Amino acid sequence: MCGIVGAIAARDVSSILIDGLHRLEYRGYDSTGIALLDEDGELQLRRAVGKVVRLEERLRAAPCHGPIGIAHSRWATHGGVTEANAHPHVSGGRIALIHNGIIENYVELRSELQAKGYHFASETDTEVIAHLIHELVKQGNDLTTAVRQAVRRLTGAYAIVVFDAQEPDRICVARIASPLVIGLGKDGENFVASDVQALLTETRRFQFLEEGDVAEIRRDAITIWDQSDAEVSRPVHESSLSADAVERGEYAHYMLKEIYEQPRALADTLSERLLGDHVLEAVLGPAAGRILPLVQNVHIVACGTSFHAGLVARYYLEQGARIPCSVEVASEYRYRDPVVTPGTLFLAISQSGETADTLAALREARRLGYVGTCAICNVAESSLVREADMALMTRAGPEVGVASTKAFTTQLAALGMLGLAIAQRRGFDRRTIALYARQMAQVPTLVEHTLKLDPQIRQWATRFADKQHALFLGRGPSYPVALEGALKLKEISYIHAEAYPAGELKHGPLALVDAEMPVIAVAPNNALLEKLKSNLQEVRARGGQLFVFADPNAGIEPADGIDVMTMPDHIEALQAPLVYTVPLQLLAYHVAVLRGTDVDQPRNLAKSVTVE
Ligand code: G6P
Fold first, then answer.
1. Domains assigned to the chain
2. In angstroms, what is the span from residue 305 Cα to ligand 1's centroid?
3. Which residues line ligand 1 (CB under 6 A)?
4. Which residue, of 234, 353, 357, 368, has the fewest CB within 10 Å?
5. What whole-number distance in Å separates Cα of residue 29 and Cα of residue 246?
6. pLDDT digits (tens, 9 = 90+) for 480-495
7. Is 607 a catalytic residue?
8. What is the pTM of this model?
9. What is the tens place of the pLDDT at every residue in 10-29?
């Protein structure tokens, strides 16, 4: 998704801006651009389609430097992927502006500005903001006043950063529904970005802008106005993230690094919360004591991989804690006008905490009479965490690969703990709680053992690399694991992959099965194993090639047309979704590498989807 970096200093900021764009590359984008105010007061603009390296080539061919600048990576929404549509957009040769989000009333604003003589050089919704601000400065306003007035005309979602070549003492910014953070530099310099990761080499001190804030950033002063136009101060946070937490190290791709980080990420997520025989309820925050006793139902809402985590959580909550649970994708929920059963907890799951649909769903839920809202999230400073009544943080660390891996398994660990916290409140037998707590505590070690299958999985991958389609099967909690496996494969290898609950095979997908359709099955040793085995026979009888990730005691033997990967022994029901996800991540990864795709930044996808 689009990325923003801006800087005002006494030195050249071009390399800071380019480095920031590199650090935001993981978000997914299709074009980039930079605008600098050079030493002679000239506005310099360079833009390029494709990766940041293309922009760097442009800059080598036509260098520019300066102490004020803004840079952007664009993920196209309005208008195709062209240089003219890339940001920054410039108005009147003096206003340079970058924007994340979508302006919903841009058509009306565009006609109004065209009537005033403005010529539009792009097909974007963004360009109207640049011209609108230009029109206001032309009328005699300073940039700050112009921005404060212009944002009142905008509807939709935006994080904007703008400078005026004729006022070289400031950058102005504003946000609604799209994140923006000010980085406080030393010695008369300040920064702004859509994500703290862009600025970690320059500063660790950040001010997060709230909904509707407008700010004026000077070298030595920052002034912020809130939605009601009152001057406010926002707290300064010291980030604990290190700049190298987002380095790839010895790994060929971030995704592989993040798969291998799972034992540590899981251990961190469980530590200090899972105390031997119970879960520390206080980790959900001060509202937990008030809300949890009222919970009779749970309604989970999320997108993408986080939605799959929700589907697993339904088993934890219904089978484990005996509490009714429904799960839904956020983009549907927010427009469905749902009926809320009394005593229902709204649970939003999101790695980033900034996904537009999930955030909108949370805001809708707050009006609807839930007993409370809870976020499972990986980013402590995110909007989702700030706006929910309770939050349980995953401690996966920054996830850079667009295809989510460690965020998913740590979400499952957090959801397992939430299930235990609810079961404790519902007066479950202490020995049962203690048993589940011990099983959860073993997961990091089991995942570590599972990673040892990597060389065998790489071998299997060679047999998928030339395929067009793949089918994933699972039953019970292994069905969402199969869904996640199929999502990983399609996201990064571009092989069409679908997942089905294995019992549903005969109601349609069996028609697709032939020797060209590899069928991947997730077969832990649980109450549904025998049923799954019958379903696998149905595949074999049609000449389908089976690849089964199986418990050592599953009684599934390798044979003609059946390849079996033996998983670690004694995986309990609670543990299986976490452990069986890992080989599916590795399979997708190796297939993608063999097919030569861009593993960490797959085409058309974005890490954090901050537009609807
Ligand atoms: C995007 C990402 C997915 C992610 C989904 C939800 O589509 O590419 O990996 O699962 O957004 O993101 P969230 O941050 O809300 O978990």
1. 3-245 (3.60.20.10), 250-441 (3.40.50.10490), 451-599 (3.40.50.10490)
2. 6
3. 303-306, 350-352, 355, 358, 402, 404, 605-609
4. 368
5. 18
6. 999 999 999 999 999 9
7. yes
8. 0.77
9. 999 999 999 999 988 876 78
